[in-house]
Specification:
It is a single chain. The chain is an alpha/beta fold. The chain is built from 15 helices and 17 strands. It has helices spanning about 15-25, 55-60, 75-85, 95-100, 105-115, 120-125, 130-135, 150-165, 170-175, 185-190, 190-205, 225-235, 295-310, 320, 370-375; strands spanning about 5-10, 30-35, 50-55, 65-70, 90-95, 120, 145-150, 215, 235-245, 250-260, 275-280, 285-290, 325-330, 335-340, 350-360, 365-370, 385-390. The strands form 3 sheets. Strands 7, 8, 9, 10, 11, 12 and 13 form a 7-stranded mixed sheet that branches. A 6-stranded parallel sheet has the order 3-2-1-4-5-6, sandwiched between helices. Strand 9 and strand 10 (about 250-260) form a beta hairpin. The longest helix is centred in the last third of the chain and has 16 residues, at about 295-310. The protein is globular and about 70 Å long. The structure holds NADP nicotinamide-adenine-dinucleotide phosphate (NAP). NADP nicotinamide-adenine-dinucleotide phosphate binds near residues 40, 179 and 183.
């Protein structure tokens, strides 16, 4: 690709404006914004109105535009934009994890058929360069586990609850005000957003392509004050953890809240930060931390992808092409803490073993081992009066 590139951007919200800011403060990259497509022309914008259009074609069909940057908060429209751009042989950068996770196979096919790159570093952990590291550095079969805090918004909420005794609703409102939450906050609190990110990580870490419905996710919206008190008594915090790991040739994955003890590296990952622990056969533990949300930090990852395009970088999907023969399994035993009240109860026959049972007027809970297959299929899981969290001890 030529070294002085022209960009067509879709979206000028939190990330779009972040990209504008970082692009204008970075000297090392020769990229210029030609047009920005938005949805609501009546909105006041902080830059020259001449940049804006509501007509997609002005970007997609402009032969001068080399790179389309998709930063909108809609899924169907984003997929249409990205598909049309790739078909017109324009390289694409996106941060839209939901769109990527839902359309992974089609997006791979479009890249192959039109020989055009599609990069999406900002979609996983915003500013942490996870995808390129998984592709380039961990380009072999030695990686065994990726575990982390992948959602800045829920981490921000949980940090406020633990550090400042803030109520859930106020912490969420604060996260939204600062641009850390998705426009639809249920994507964050119900753990869908980190699940989409985990789906992308699974491809680059283990060469496994799954659909969102294949992975178990359980959010932070069942957590009660009594669960927070329990965590504090154990000198732990609650974190929303996404994990995928390999045992022999089988890979399991889930997203769930977990009690994280003080000695755990992820305990210190607070507020809008994300943290990722990678485990390899010989490298042992490696830890990445960085801002997982916010305009400028996400914009900087988008800019890094734009810069990578100037030296013709593209994902090779090394793990997929290595034919590693990994298969996905949900057959994994987890140790969980389950709290319940008001007549709601977990079905104890679903558990392989129960090591602690506590029942009192204020607080009922048990600690036990349960297979992920059983947990995912349990009806009691959806009761608002029941909360499930992983304990600190997971193999
Ligand atoms: N915020 C973060 O920290 C963060 C981090 C990582 C990844 N992401 C991802 O980045 C993307 C953008 O997030 P955001 O927080 O910047 O969203 P946002 O603040 O809600 O902004 C969305 C932008 O998209 C525009 N838009 C929506 N539908 C459109 C359409 N059909 N055609 C053209 N423009 C359209 C909106 O136009 P108007 O301005 O006219 O309304 C707005 O400018 C999302 O996929 C999100 O998941 C966000």
């Amino acid at each position: 690709m030529k070294r002085n590139i022209k960009l067509g951007i879709f979206g000028f919200g939190c990330v779009g404006q972040g990209l504008y800011n970082v692009l204008h403060q970075t000297k090392g990259i020769s990229a210029e914004i030609k047009k920005i497509c938005i949805k609501h022309p009546e909105k006041k914008r902080p830059i020259d109105p001449g940049f804006f259009t509501v007509n997609r074609e002005e970007i997609i069909n402009d032969p001068e535009i080399d790179v389309v940057v998709e930063l909108i908060d809609e899924v169907d429209a984003a997929f249409e934009i990205v598909s049309a751009a790739l078909k017109n042989r324009k390289a694409v950068v996106s941060a839209n994890k939901k769109m990527i996770a839902e359309h992974f196979t089609e997006l791979m096919e479009l890249q192959r058929r039109y020989s055009t790159p599609f990069l999406y570093e900002a979609s996983c952990c915003a500013s942490i360069p996870v995808i390129r590291n998984l592709e380039e550095y961990y380009d072999n079969d030695l990686l065994t586990s990726v575990k982390g805090i992948l959602n800045g918004s829920t981490n921000y909420i949980l940090s406020h609850i633990f550090e400042n005794n803030m109520a859930f609703g106020s912490a969420l409102a604060d996260a939204q005000k600062l641009g850390y939450a998705e426009s639809d906050p249920s994507l964050d609190v119900k753990a869908l957003d980190p699940k989409y990110k985990l789906l992308i990580i699974l491809v680059h870490a283990f060469g496994i392509i799954l659909k969102p419905e294949d992975i178990f996710n359980y959010g932070i919206d069942h957590i009660k004050d009594s669960d927070i008190r329990y965590a504090r008594e154990k000198n732990s915090r609650i974190k929303l953890i996404a994990r995928c790991a390999k045992v022999n040739n089988k890979v399991y994955a889930y997203v769930m809240p977990q009690l994280v003890s003080e000695s755990d590296t992820l305990n210190k990952v607070a507020f809008e930060y994300n943290g990722l622990l990678l485990e390899g056969a010989f490298s042992e533990h490696q830890f990445f931390m960085g801002k997982g949300a916010g305009g400028n930090s996400t914009g900087s990852a988008v800019l890094s992808d734009i810069s990578a395009l100037t030296y013709d970088y593209r994902y090779e999907y090394k793990k997929l092409h290595q034919r590693l023969n990994h298969s996905y399994t949900m057959d994994k035993v987890l140790e969980v803490f389950v709290s319940y009240n008001g007549g709601a109860k977990p079905d104890t026959s679903d558990f392989e073993s129960i090591s602690v049972r506590h029942e009192s007027e204020e607080f009922n809970y048990l600690v036990g081992k349960i297979n992920l297959v059983k947990l995912a299929g349990a009806n009691w899981l959806n009761e608002a009066a029941i909360n499930v969290m992983l304990t600190e001890k997971q193999e």
